[in-house]
Design a protein that fits this description.
It is built from 27 helices and 2 strands. Helix content is 65%, strand content 2%. A hairpin with a 6-residue loop joins strand 1 and strand 2. The protein has a two-stranded antiparallel ribbon with strand order 1-2. The chain is globular, with a radius of gyration of 24 Å. The protein has one domain: Sodium/glucose cotransporter, CATH 1.20.1730. The N terminus is likely disordered. The longest helix is centred in the first third of the chain and has 50 residues. By secondary structure, the chain is an all-alpha fold. The two termini are 38 Å apart. GO terms for molecular function: D-glucose:sodium symporter activity. Its main location: membrane. This is Sodium/mannose cotransporter SLC5A10.
């Protein structure tokens, strides 16, 4: 980050003793919850470490789904995009949050999405490709954006050294992720969800009191013009459609076709195929808990509009010269980025409005969001590597070896993340949330198309899926290279990008890319032999309730060929010692290790109806919100 930001950071208020106590208490409580949860669930079986023993209740899973999807990147990004363009970005939070209810039915006997496609299509190339793609996306989009936004917040509010603050959070995060597996992640996510909601409520109430209430928001936002502007330009003016969700299909910053169809494609990828989300749902006791967790997360996803996006708009209204700056020299002085400083909207509110003690709470909130997101990515990525890459090449690997590999992968991800920090500094821009969504639009739609056809069309085969993914990848990467080669121009600068780039919004591109992939998959599948009965039995929407043809122990699945692990090393039973709060492992013979329970897709009539009622209620609320703010 540019040294020119020192003037801005110098404005940060000094932290009091109470702020430091709050932050320290948060870290200690977080570690305590992580250690406690590590001791509750066996961490030395694959099901225990990667899926929390498949014995989690609906409420911690729902809280974890929410916390994992609201990382610090979204705290900073949503507030920043709200400050720059208004409420339309709320559509990303409201779009089809219940999709995971439907999709987890297919995954109920699976560990990862690549493993599902491996069983569905046979072979290894699709499974390996998707695992590698997911790992790359985790490192270079999820981890990088979370690290940047978290470090930005801490540096703005505390004035700490960027490397010191980031490394400290990474180390604490990695400790309980490596030690505890998914159970530690889910229980600490539950704690962090509570902290995030409480802190955001306090900040929102304080911010609205500052402007005189919600009724004044539109007026004060429309007048949020910086004192230093660029002549003969309009980029300093707030958008006239700032309070509308649906915007012009051609000139809108978030056009309505993209926010309906394109966003649905991205939401399907995230809620149905992204390992971070699917893995949490797979840890549930049964299908009723899966649906209950999804519904709880959907209710919680209503909150960011009020507690993140609207405060971002208030931040621009209160501090237009910093949050709404457009002059490149002024923006560099304020935040170190020529293209704008909307990303500082949320931390700016914290350091200006929050009193002593509560300011420390909000720092804890962002740390919670950062650590929640990172723990999710670390745990899920290690699962992908272990189950879909390592075990493929070492089918005879014992459980003990696979667990060790999973923990080593987490350490490697931490190291790569720290090495990535200098690149994050140089990549400081005012387009963080746009960056996240645009990269997703270039890479995710082919996966969505293949997954959807695999679930709903039994004729889809391996050749069609593979070549559809390859065509989609080539087209998506070409668009991404063009996007990075022609960065959005600064205010007042002529855009030299080709018309085909600026003329097709990234959400519209997602629609076209998904459609192209689906066409390729369909044509190739029809021109090649159909899949075998084994590849569709119990693996599509139409066959999911069929009785399994054979027992498939979770930890023994290597690929579609169902090779079993021959490792015979004794596994370990976890007991909790009372010295330094550590968990001590005791040897247990293999025959004493219970097989992981595979949850059933069947559920009681009462809870099925209860979940369906809440799902319909959520859809009704979504329709009302879209209509009210359209």
């Amino acid at each position: 980050m540019s040294n020119s930001t020192n003037n801005f950071y110098a404005l940060s208020q000094s932290f009091s003793v109470s702020d430091i106590i709050v932050i320290a208490t948060y870290f200690l409580l977080n570690l305590a919850v992580g250690i406690w949860s590590s001791c509750r669930v066996s961490r030395n079986t694959l099901s225990g470490y990667f899926l929390a023993g498949r014995d989690m209740a609906w409420w911690p899973i729902g809280a974890s789904l929410f916390a994992s999807s609201e990382g610090s990147g979204l705290f900073i990004g949503l507030a920043g995009t709200g400050a720059a363009g208004g409420i339309a970005v709320a559509g990303f939070e409201w779009n089809l949050k219940m999709l995971t209810c439907m999709c987890v039915c297919v995954f109920v006997q699976i560990v990862t999405m690549p493993e599902y496609l491996g069983r569905r299509f046979g072979g290894e190339r699709i499974r390996t490709y998707l695992a590698v793609l997911s790992l790359l996306l985790s490192v270079f989009t999820k981890i990088s954006t979370d690290l940047y936004s978290g470090a930005l917040f801490v540096q703005v509010c505390l004035g700490w050294n960027l490397y010191l603050s980031t490394v400290l959070m990474l180390v604490v995060t990695a400790l309980y992720t490596i030690a505890g597996g998914l159970a530690a992640v889910i229980y600490t996510d539950t704690l962090q969800t509570f902290i995030m909601i409480v802190g955001a409520i306090i900040l929102t109430i304080t911010a609205f009191n500052k402007i005189g209430g919600y009724g004044n928001l539109e007026q004060v936002y429309s007048m949020a013009v910086p004192s230093k502007i660029i002549p003969n330009s309009t980029c300093h003016l707030p958008r006239e459609d700032a309070m509308h969700l649906f915007r012009d299909a051609v000139t809108g910053d978030l056009p309505w076709p993209g926010m309906t169809l394109g966003l649905t494609i991205l939401a399907t990828w995230y809620w149905c195929t992204d390992q971070v989300i699917v893995q949490r749902s797979l840890s549930a006791k049964n299908m009723s808990h899966v649906k209950g967790a999804s519904i709880l997360a959907a209710y919680l996803k209503m909150l960011p509009f009020i507690f993140i996006i609207l405060p971002g708009m208030i931040s621009r209204a209160l501090y237009p010269d910093s949050v709404g700056c457009v002059d490149p020299e002024e923006c560099v002085r304020v935040c170190g980025a020529e293209v704008g400083c909307s990303n500082i909207a949320f931390p700016k509110l914290v350091i200006e409005l929050m009193p002593s003690g509560l300011r420390g709470l909000m720092i804890a909130v962002i740390m919670a969001a950062l650590m929640s997101s990172l723990t999710s990515i670390f745990n899920s990525s290690s699962t992908l590597f272990t189950m879909d890459i390592w075990k493929k090449h070492r089918p005879q690997a014992s459980e003990r070896e696979l667990l060790l590999v999973g923990r080593i992968v987490t350490v490697i991800l931490v190291v790569v993340s720290v090495v990535w920090i200098p690149i994050l500094q140089s990549a400081n821009s005012g387009q963080l949330y746009v960056y996240i969504q645009s990269v997703t639009s270039y890479l995710a739609p082919p996966v969505t198309a293949v997954f959807t056809l695999a679930v709903f069309w039994k004729r889809t085969n391996e050749q069609g899926a593979f070549w559809g993914l390859m065509v989609g990848l080539v087209v998506g990467v070409c668009r991404m290279v063009l996007e990075f080669g022609f960065a959005p121009p600064r205010c007042g600068v002529v855009d030299s990008a080709p018309a085909v780039l600026r003329g097709v919004h990234y959400l519209h591109f997602a629609i076209l890319l998904c459609g192209l992939t689906a066409i390729v998959v369909t044509i190739v599948s029809l021109l090649t032999p159909p899949p075998s009965q084994e590849q569709v039995h119990n693996l599509t929407w139409w066959t999911i309730t069929e009785e399994p043809q054979r027992e498939i122990p979770l930890q023994k699945v290597s690929s579609v060929s169902h090779r079993s692990s021959q490792g015979s090393e004794p596994t370990r039973r976890v007991t909790c010692g009372h010295v330094a709060g550590l968990c001590i492992s005791a040897l247990r013979r293999p025959e004493e290790t219970p097989a992981p329970r595979v949850p059933s897709v069947r559920e009681s009539v009462f809870w099925s109806r209860f979940c369906c009622f809440n799902a319909l209620l959520l859809i009704s609320i979504n329709i009302f919100l879209y209509a009210y703010f359209a």
